[in-house]
């Protein structure tokens, strides 16, 4: 991102459009920092991209290589699944009290 400001601007615009489209359709929107995704996938927030790619392949039992963008997207999905499951367990535990 920092290497190409024009690409960063376009990505920000696309991100904003995607969030707006989801909100207009009354869909839930979740956002995670890179550190949160790395923590969920690798177990440490300062993991590098190769570690994220490797663990994503292992967690999803994917044979062959993943491109960085593929690993990033799947990593975010895995992070969301972990957070969603954790929040559900918390809600269930809170109902017992």
Characterize the structure shown.
This protein has 97 residues and is an all-alpha fold. Helices cover 69% and strands 0% of the residues. It is globular.
So what's the overall shape?
Answer: globular
Largest β sheet strand count, sense and barrel closure = none
- The overall average pLDDT, rounded, is 92
N-C termini distance: 46 Å
Instruction: Please give the share of residues in helix.
Output: 55-70%
Share in β-strands:
under 5%
CA radius of gyration is 16 Å
Low-confidence stretches: none
Count up the helices: 4
Order of helices and strands: HHHH
Counting DSSP E segments of at least 2 residues, the number of strands comes to 0
Structural class: mainly alpha
Concise account of the structure shown:
It contains four helices and no strands. It is mostly helical and 97 residues long.
